[in-house]
Amino acid sequence: MLETKIHNLTLKNPVMTASGTFGYGEEFSDFVDLSRLGGIVVKGTTGERRQGNAYPRMAETPAGMLNAVGLQNVGVETFCQDVYPRIKELDTNIIVNVSGSSIEEYSKVASMIDALDRIPAIELNISCPNVKKGGMGFGTRPEMAAQVVGEVRKVYHKTLIVKLTPNVTNVVEIAQAVEDAGADSVSLINTLLGMAIDVERQRPYLSTITGGLSGPCVKPIAVRMVWQVAHAVKIPVIGLGGIVTAADALEFLMAGAKAVEVGTANFLDPAVTMKIVDGLEDYCNRHGIKDINDIIGII
Amino acid sequence: MKKYITDFTIIGKRILGEQYFTLTLQHPATLPPIAAGQFVEVEVRGCKEVLLRRPISIHDVDTENNTLTLLIQIVGKGTRQLATLQEGDTLNLVYPLGRGFSLDGEKVLLVGGGAGIAPLLHLSKCLNAKGIRPTILLGGRTADLIPVRDEFKSLGTVGIATEDGSLGEKGLVTQHTLFSGDYDHIYTCGPTPMMKAVARHALANGIVCEVSLENLMACGIGACLCCVVDSDAGHKCVCKEGPVFKATELTKWLNN
Known about the structure:
The structure holds 2 protein chains of 2 kinds.
Chain A lengths: L3 E3 L2 E3 L3 E3 L21 E7 L12 E4 L2 E4 L8 H12 L5 E6 L4 H12 L6 E5 L16 H14 L3 E5 L7 H10 L4 E4 L3 E4 L1 E2 L4 E2 L5 E5 L4 H12 L6 E4 L5 H10 L1 E6 L2 H4 L3 H15 L13
Parallel strand pairs in A: 3-4, 3-16, 4-7, 7-8, 8-9, 9-10, 10-15, 15-16
Antiparallel strand pairs in A: 1-2, 5-6, 6-14, 11-14, 12-13
Chain B lengths: L3 E13 L3 E7 L12 E4 L11 E9 L4 E7 L3 H6 L7 E8 L10 E6 L4 H12 L5 E6 L16 E6 L6 E2 L14 E5 L2 H13 L3 E5 L15 E4 L2 E4 L6 E3 L4 H4 L2
């Protein structure tokens, strides 16, 4: 009833977890039956180990939060040697979010992940603002986005999902550019660039001044962008941004997403993904829906 | 240690001056083991400005009655909302979280300041259960800012320091006569400058020291990587790899 497909991946249900909000899945095993998830997108992995940004890295904002973690991760070699053996038997789609600061770094990480049997897909994170060329994110200009996707496509042979940033004038042209460059799917949205100031201390809350906004406050923007992109590309779209309930997930599905990722909500309720899966089942039963695909993209 | 997400019922509330209160929470069944120094992530309902859970240290555990008590300082919107809770209300917790105190040491000193006094009660009881009677030093700017003290009397030798001299010895905890006693292990929780002073003294005198940090958190289980401390081995999650650290793991932080 809830089964859905993203390129070559079969998902038990459309509910996945968003990178950077669910660790490597292990952190949630006391709360979630991981085998009931459609997929887990593990934390952003780079060519080398990264320490990330200085504390403070988080600020609560109305119906949302800002983060400036800055891709703290163990690096692709430690991931392959230490983390992968621990998680490879999980009975769900394990997708690695691949991040980098240069095309060479993206390609290196992607080719190393390509060799791991139990990782059927990567999610290419092209919204890192600190890159070599022109100091501009790969995800904010169509030709740059196409270039990095094209290069990674040469070394990565499984399902290639490209995660898009909402910090652009026209997300559709970026989506079309990565589709033309060989992406098998796009996921959106990454966080919105934001900022918050502690007026008592007269200082920004984040060590980096600006950070990425997530949580329920971004959902209407995310639904709009998913709807726009889903109507403009042929590859499957994965929707994320502020999903807390099954109804939120359904909004994305109806807007055209074949699957969704749950992010910040995992911090509010570590068992939230199970409630969303249950809620989707319940919705289908109440509405006499035999196949969730029947409501995907109905708007 | 397995973690849970559970609805507790509030069966007791004590107002402790203007800034502090305690909530005693009834678990619906048998309470799992909870180490001294561990914390809970509390869901805050009914305040539209509050999205995230609030990390609160575990003040007391009663395994006979399956209750635990939280000592909470009102510092912002979340804790102010929690202060409106009453007996009979439900509170959803993710718990028990983090790495607690080791319970090591024979001649043990506990140093707490303000809300940092909270975990020292459960710690004192756990030490007593091991046959250790600690010296317990509690500090605050004024007597009002030392939320609890009588509870400690039967658990060890208690000393109080206030900066204005309104209770106990006048001055900082590190100036208290009990502070420079003969100890082999110090546990401390409280304001950062206090903990740093305590830890520096311990390291300089060859005393093992454990500090309990309180950083801003989102998830509380090591997923979001927001609450990191710059430890000697790189960024570590206070929620998962802490909140209790050996001072020797944090020399960079101590000297910062």
